[in-house]
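can u pls check wat happens w/ magnesium ion
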Amino acid sequence: MLTARLPQSEIDRAVEALRDGDLVAFPTETVYGLGADAQNPQAVRKVFEVKGRPASHPLIVHIHDTRALERWVLSVPPAAAQLAQAFWPGPLTLILPRAPAVDMAITGGQETVAVRVPRHPVAQQLLRAFGGGIVAPSANRYGQLSPTRAEHVRDELGDEVKVILDGGDCKIGVESTIVSCIGDVPRVLRPGAVTLTQLRQVVGNVEGSPGEAPPRVPGSSDKHYAPRTPLRVVESGRLEQELRKRTEKYRKTGVLAMRPPRSAGKFMTWINAGVRADVYARDLYSHLRTLDRSDVTEILVEEVPAGENWDAARDRLRRASEAGNTSPVDPDIAALLADFGEETGQP
Ligand code: TXA
Ligand code: MG
């Protein structure tokens, strides 16, 4: 597996591209980032253009270590310092008051800035060699699945990225936990590998925001983290039944489950992602890409368990299903409507 450091010559080429104002895709332990020099406003603009991301949606500044924070933030509240100490480098992003010098394009016009120190050795190599901050959203087009392999980036953005650093498969596979340290009590804006319990072990009081749609986090808009194929989350006990409803009408259907199918069947592509939360999260986007590329007309996802270890995966699946299923119609009726559409030639 390719998770070790890269030869310095590759890092140097990436650094040169960043200095030239070009984009560099690089691995982090969560997902691949689409990086640009955070101090070059044109380069920052290029990130928004290539991603097709609205200007109001802010970017994360990646830095090499906590000492580099000073350049980007106005102040570090005690809780933020404790969280940084405990979880950096790692899959945690902190929202802090922005320093005056931070380009407003990065922050989407806000007085706050998102900062993270990634742990991946190649991200560390790149940040150390570059010396400055690197803005990096996930290296996918706006609203699509985040990349967890270099080839995902190549497929989706290949021509528009100057250098793609290949650091192998991302170990975590879902985006960082975002914690806002603005206000009296730190608040989770996006669940990730660092859980609420782990955060509370460090700073005591932390607010979760399960299911809530926090403002200015585009990850909470319907379009996010979604495959192109409509996706529906189904209770485990109903999985085979829902599948049969579709396949008996010859509709090819994809399934992402935590177990093997109870019966074999035609017209289905079944992925058993297993019952381990960390493995499930690590492979989630890659599995959804696989199903998206197969010619299924719908993806059924077995509902994941309740525990907080599943929060990140559950959150991304909920958003993906909202994007894929614009109508809250009962699946039976939806199937009838789809049949009707097929017969009358309507979409
Ligand atoms: O794991 C990750 O966080 C990956 C890797 C590449 O670091 N990055 C990532 O970036 O997921 P992106 O741009 O796809 O998501 C960043 C999230 C967005 O939802 C954005 O709105 C939020 O961070 N964000 C950035 N600045 C913010 C701010 N000042 N206040 C609130 N949310 C902010
Ligand atoms: Mg993203």
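The two ends are 44 Å apart (CA to CA).
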